[in-house]
Specification:
By secondary structure, this protein is α/β, with parallel strands linked by helices. About 25% of the residues are buried. Helix 5 links the parallel strand 3 and strand 4. It contains eight helices and seven strands, in the order αααββαβαβαβαβαβ. About 45% of the residues lie in helices and about 10% in strands. The chain has two domains: about 50 residues, Helicase, Ruva Protein, domain 3 (Orthogonal Bundle); about 120 residues, Dna Topoisomerase Vi A Subunit, Chain: A, domain 2 (3-Layer(aba) Sandwich). Helix 1 crosses helix 2. The structure holds zinc ion. Zinc ion binds next to helix 4.
Length: about 200
C-alpha cells in the first residue's frame, strides 16, 4: 500500500496530458527523493508563469508581453495559420516549411461538450484575416477539427479571403502536436484551397 500523499501525487501527474500511470509513478518517486530542491524551483517557476504569462492580444499565442514577438515581427510572409493551441505554433516554428503569422483558437468546437465555434478565440479573426493574402487552416483532422474548419472557412470566404487547408497525410484523428516535421512540411507544401 502506498501512503495517501504519494497516491495523490501520482494521480495528479497521471491527470496531466501525455503522462501514463507508470510515468506518473516515476516522477512522484523522483520528487520524493528531491523534494526540497524541486519544490523550491517549481514554486518559483509557477509563480513567474502565473504573474507573467498571458495570451497575446492579437493572435492568442502565449507571451510575456501584450503582443507576442511573432505578431510584432515584420519580416514574415503575409499568411495566417489558424491553429488550435500555442503548442501547434511551436511545431510550425520548429519546421522551416513556412514563416507565417498565426491565430490560436484555444480549442475546437465540440458538440457533445457544448462548445460552439463562437466560444473559441475568433472575435478578431475576420478583421485580422483581411490583412493577409492567405489563411491556412491547420487543425487536427478529427471531427472537432473538421467542424471548426468548416465554420471558419465559411466565415472567411464570405469576405472573399483566400482559405487553404493542410493537405491530408496527417493520420485521421491525430493531434497536430504528434505529427513529425516531414509530414508537417509536406502537408503545408501540398495544401489545397478550400472550395
Ligand atoms: Zn501574437
Amino acid at each position: 500500500m502506498k501512503p495517501d500523499s504519494l497516491e495523490n501525487l501520482i494521480k495528479r501527474f497521471n491527470s496531466l496530458p501525455g503522462i501514463g500511470k507508470k510515468q506518473a509513478e516515476r516522477i512522484a518517486y523522483h520528487i520524493i527523493r528531491n523534494v526540497d530542491s524541486i519544490s523550491e524551483s517549481l514554486e518559483s517557476d509557477l509563480k513567474t508563469i502565473r504573474e507573467n504569462i498571458t495570451n497575446c492580444n492579437e493572435c492568442g499565442n502565449i507571451t510575456e508581453e501584450e503582443i507576442c514577438d511573432i505578431c510584432t515581427s515584420e519580416n514574415r510572409e503575409r499568411r495566417l495559420i489558424v491553429v488550435e493551441t500555442p503548442m501547434d505554433i511551436f511545431k510550425f516554428e520548429e519546421s522551416d516549411a513556412i514563416r507565417p503569422y498565426y491565430h490560436v483558437l484555444h480549442g475546437l468546437a465540440n458538440i457533445s461538450k457544448n462548445i460552439n465555434p463562437e466560444d473559441l478565440n475568433i472575435r478578431n479573426l475576420k478583421e485580422r484575416a483581411l490583412k493577409y493574402k492567405e489563411v491556412i487552416i491547420a487543425l487536427s483532422p478529427n471531427l472537432e477539427g473538421i467542424v471548426t474548419a468548416n465554420y471558419i472557412s465559411h466565415l472567411l470566404k464570405s469576405e472573399g479571403i483566400k482559405v487553404t487547408q493542410l493537405a491530408q497525410g496527417i493520420p485521421l484523428g491525430a493531434a497536430l502536436e504528434y505529427v513529425d516535421e516531414i509530414t508537417l512540411k509536406s502537408a503545408i507544401n501540398n495544401r489545397k484551397e478550400v472550395e
